[in-house]
Design a protein that fits this description.
Length: about 130
């Protein structure tokens, strides 16, 4: 068994698709109409057959509440691995990304946290 899709809640799928593809650099894999919403997944350009990130609409009240509470408490909803966190931090800052935590050494890891503009905090990590 392996993880093939993971999801994050977003309020606006088009805005999220733009941020995750144009700003972060992920590649759109699927964009399939499913009634009122779409099944939109992205993959890493480094692993296009790897785990897909689903931009899940947060239209359910529980999803909205979950998303708001995690954001308010400063809890990232997911983590992305990077090979050079300082270079990635600089690249994203130059694209206007707002960080809530600059690269910080935590034992063997270095982490940073940013706002995805879609209601989520995302953590990046370098081992």
């Amino acid at each position: 068994m392996k993880i093939i899709v993971t999801s994050i809640f977003v309020g606006d799928q088009d805005k999220a698709l733009k941020f995750y593809s144009e700003t972060l650099g992920f590649i759109k894999k699927h964009d399939i109409p499913t009634g009122e919403f779409r099944w939109i997944t992205l993959v890493s350009p480094e692993d296009q057959k790897g785990t897909e990130l689903l931009l899940e609409p947060n239209n359910h009240p529980a999803a909205k509440e979950y998303q708001k509470k995690l954001f308010a408490d400063g809890i990232p909803v997911t983590m992305f691995g990077v090979s050079d966190i300082h270079a990635e931090y600089k690249r994203l800052i130059e694209k206007g990304v707002k960080f809530t935590m600059e690269p910080t050494k935590m034992g063997e890891l270095t982490i940073a946290v940013f706002d995805d503009t879609c209601g989520n905090l995302i953590q990046i990590m370098q081992e």
